[in-house]
Amino acid sequence: MKPVEIYTTPTCPYCVAAKRLLTKKGVTFTDIDVSRDPALREAMTRRANGGRTVPQIFIGGQHVGGCDDLHELDHVGQLDPLLA
Hints:
Layout: E1 4-8, H1 13-24, E2 29-33, H2 38-47, E3 56-59, E4 62-65, H3 67-75, H4 79-83
Parallel strand pairs: 1-2
Antiparallel strand pairs: 1-3, 3-4
């Protein structure tokens, strides 16, 4: 399974929903909390091509977007192949 990284903040309901979906699928992921580290948030923004909102999700180093994007990939059957 490809490595999954998710940039989050503790109080973000979209972050919780994205992590819940990944956990339901049995995916181990690295949770990077950007709430208290401006340098981490800046790194996230650069990696996400300017995306400043959380979550920002990367699968195998590829930016897939946020929570809605992750759920859409799952809905159309593209998430599992991407994770494999």
